[in-house]
Amino acid sequence: QSCDILSSAFFRYQTIIFGFREEVLKFHPKFKAGSLTELDVNVKNKCDQYPYLGMDESYNLTISSSGATLNSNSVWGALRGIETFSQLVLQRSKDMFTVNGTTIVDYPRFQHRGLLLDTSRHFLDVSIIKQNLLAMSQSKFNVFHWHIVDDQSFPYTSNNFPDMATMGAYDSKHIYTQDQIAEIIEFARILGIRVIPEFDSPGHSQSWGKSIKDLLTKCYSSGKPNGQYGPIDPSLETSYGFLSKFFAEIAKVFPDHYVHLGGDEVNFDCWKSNPNITAFMKQKDFGTDYAKLEEYYMQRLLEIVSGVKKGYMIWQEVVDNGAKVNPDTIVEVWKNGFHTELSIITFRGYKTLLSSCWYLSDISYGIDWPKYYNCDPHNFIGTAEQKKLVIGGETCMWGEYVDNTNVLSRTWPRASVVAERLWSAQNVKDANAAAPRLEEHRCRMIKRGFPAEAVNGPGYCFQEYSIHEPV
Q1: d(CA 200, CA 231)
Q2: What pLDDT score does 464 carry?
Q3: Which residues pair with 98 in a beta bridge?
Q4: What pLDDT is recorded for position 26?
Q5: How many Cα atoms occupy the beta-carbon half-sphere of 66 within 13 Å?
Q6: What is the spatial distance between Cα 26 and Cα 18, in angstroms, rounded to a whole number?
Q7: Which of 270, 276, 310, 432 lies most in the core, judged by the most C-beta atoms within 10 Å?
């Protein structure tokens, strides 16, 4: 099979491996095992248009004196195999490259291998997001979890509600237009990466209310509004009318089956202070249990999203608080005590992701990556069937203290540590054995133009030859 994804990969990796050169490489007589002139890539099945949960990323790669062959069932397996091939080719001098003969049978341990970037606390330029996607593809990540909006800013430009960005973004320069969003989705598609947007509610929504009248709950003090606002008001039907129209748009803009709906860290204080909310609680027989009010809101939201034929991901609190969710819901575990939480959620039969132990934004001085490497999504008490429900994990780079100037160096190559644990077999877990691989990968990333920070203490990368700019 042939398609635009493969054609783009051939061009991209020709440059990644050999750099920007027009001259023909000559074969060196020193290496008598043979000269490799091409990599024969065979894709069995028709190319999919978009990557998806459960796609086949397996491949077989054989390199010998008689030639090199990459076989895969899908185009996604071909992409992963070409990346592996690119890492096997070593540059010996300015114009000499070698590759060892080898046979590789490879496939990922987990279906979902994600990285979260937060573009609300600090806006990230499209060029930075694309560089990060390139880095993700070179560590075999396959999901970009785009935490695109939050309390601080709303940079998503909505077709139906354009004032949400006009009034909710930091300013008119810190927004993502529909064309830019489509550009990012397309760039990710070519790399075999899914884009899953997160629109977190009912909390984390202060920026939403700057343009949508009566969306947020009015907070009260001494029986009067105090000028403060809380989570989205779950007592008003107008809230659900807005959400229906908004997520109908999101379903069209983002092609992946899944959208992340958040549902975490909902503060009940403002709801408790509002007399209209109190009356609504009484009407619904919720008593004083505001978790039931949150459940009511989330249930209505989940029905809206299901109605536009989307699946959804949620943070663990939604299920912890008892909301009923669809069987294909993916629950993301992010709090401490994840061993117990994984046991509980998988016992209930839900697909689960782990991110608790992979918060890259938690910075410490020194060599900190082994703690990420030592975390395993199957490290909990449960049956074999429960562990099958853990479909992977995500590493998170929250945006409070990163922006265009440092997000790439802060993320890489530490994220690659998580990528290896999510791809490789469960018994590949020795941090001491991983250290030189990580060091080599960091130097490889630097050569390819990424500002990957030092992670193993004193050392250096040998860079006598050409430095590549990311393509």
Answers
A1: 11
A2: 55
A3: 90
A4: 56
A5: 1
A6: 13
A7: 270
Q: Which string of DSSP letters, residue by residue, matches 391-432?
A: EEEEEEE-STT--TTTHHHHHTTHHHHHHHHHHS-TT---HH
Which pair of tokens denotes residue 102? 């080898």
Q: Which of 465, 462, 446 is nearest to 95 (CA)?
A: 465
The residue to which tokens 């860079």 are assigned: 463
Phi and psi of 179, rounded to 5°? -65, -40
Q: Which of 38, 83, 237, 265 is catalytic?
A: 265
Task: Report the alpha-carbon distance of residue 380 to residue 160 in Å, rounded.
Answer: 44
Buried b (16+ CB within 10 A) or exposed e, 295-313: bbbbbebbebbeeeebbbb
Structure token digits, residue 371: 């703690």
- pLDDT value at residue 467: 45
Helix 75-88 vs helix 4-18: angle between axes, to the nearest 10 degrees? 10
Residue 450 to residues 114, 308, 429: CA-CA distances in angstroms? 19, 39, 26
For residues 35 and 345, give the distance between their C-alpha atoms in angstroms, rounded to a whole number: 54
Measure the CA–CA gap between 356 and 353, rounded to whole angstroms. 9
Question: Half-sphere exposure of residue 116, counting CA atoms within 13 Å on the CB side?
Answer: 27
Whose CA is closest to 357, among 342, 344, 376? Answer: 376
* CA 71 – CA 73 distance, rounded (Å): 7
The whole-number pLDDT of residue 465 equals: 54
Structure token digits, residue 355? 């991110």
Confirm if 377 and 342 have CB atoms less than 8 A apart: yes
Q: Token pair 């396959």 is at which residue? A: 142
Q: Where are the beta strands (DSSP E) in 202-322?
A: 216-221, 224-232, 258-260, 311-315
Query: In which region does residue 101 sit, left (phi positive, over 0), alpha (psi from -120 to 50) or beta (all else)?
Result: beta
For CA atoms 87, 92, 95, 96, the dihedral sign is negative
Dihedrals φ, ψ of 397, to 5°? -120, 90
DSSP 3-state assignment of 313?
Answer: strand
Burial of 321 (0-12, 13-18, 19+ CB in 10 A): middle
What SS3 state is found at 270? Answer: helix
Question: Residue 65 has which token pair?
Answer: 């004196």
DSSP 61: E
Residues of the chain with pLDDT under 50: 466-467, 469-471
In angstroms, rounded to a whole number, what is the distance separating the alpha carbons of residues 288 and 278?
Answer: 8
Residue carrying structure tokens 């606002």: 229
265 is catalytic: yes
pLDDT for position 37: 85
Helix, strand, coil content of the chain in percent (nearest 5):
35, 20, 45
